[in-house]
Amino acid sequence: MYQTSIDVARASLRFLEMAKTTLEKSAGDLEIAAAILAVHVCDWHFVRGLGRADATRSDKRQFAKDFPAWSVLLSIVNGTKHPTVIHPDISGGEVRPPEWEDLDFWHAPQGETLFIEVEGQLRSLHSLTHSFCSAYLDWTERCSSDLAIRKTPPLPTTPTPTSHRARAPVTR
User: Fold this and answer.
1) To which H or E segment does residue 136 belong?
2) Which helix (H) or strand (E) holds 95?
3) Half-sphere exposure (CA, 13 Å, Cβ side) for 55?
4) Distances (CA, A) of 77 to 37, 122, 124, 136
5) 154 Cβ neighbours under 8 A, 6+ residues apart
6) Residues 50-61: pLDDT tens digits?
7) Which pTM was predicted?
8) Which of 35, 88, 119, 121 is most buried as measured by Cβ atoms within 10 A of its Cβ?
């Protein structure tokens, strides 16, 4: 199904598209599913994309700096899995149309979307997920040639019997 971090990001965006055309309660569920997938793009990037055993804390800190919306999504998703005071409380989330005063007004869908309070501000889960996934996909597009080069196996440093013929010594 998913082969790369790009596949996971695109699947997240497909969940958001489904959320636009579904009933109010289900739309919020689909936005949460999209956010959960989006948060895992980081793991797919480092494990599948770069061949590491896992994404380290340092990797995740850098990823959060490069993609700030991902960091907010991570906090929300952790609040979904672990209802503690250190994560946003999604139980207070509300599905409604975006309002002019909302931080994510310009990037929210025109219809209903799930808003969750994060650090004193209501944030649109749809907007955050869409913003992160779009930025990540744009970045991968810009870097695709560089990523392809990094995945190319290194050239052999010593000749192998199948690639070079033994030469006779040159005498003068």
Assistant:
1) helix 125-151
2) strand 94-96
3) 18
4) 10, 15, 13, 18
5) none
6) 888 888 999 999
7) 0.77
8) 35
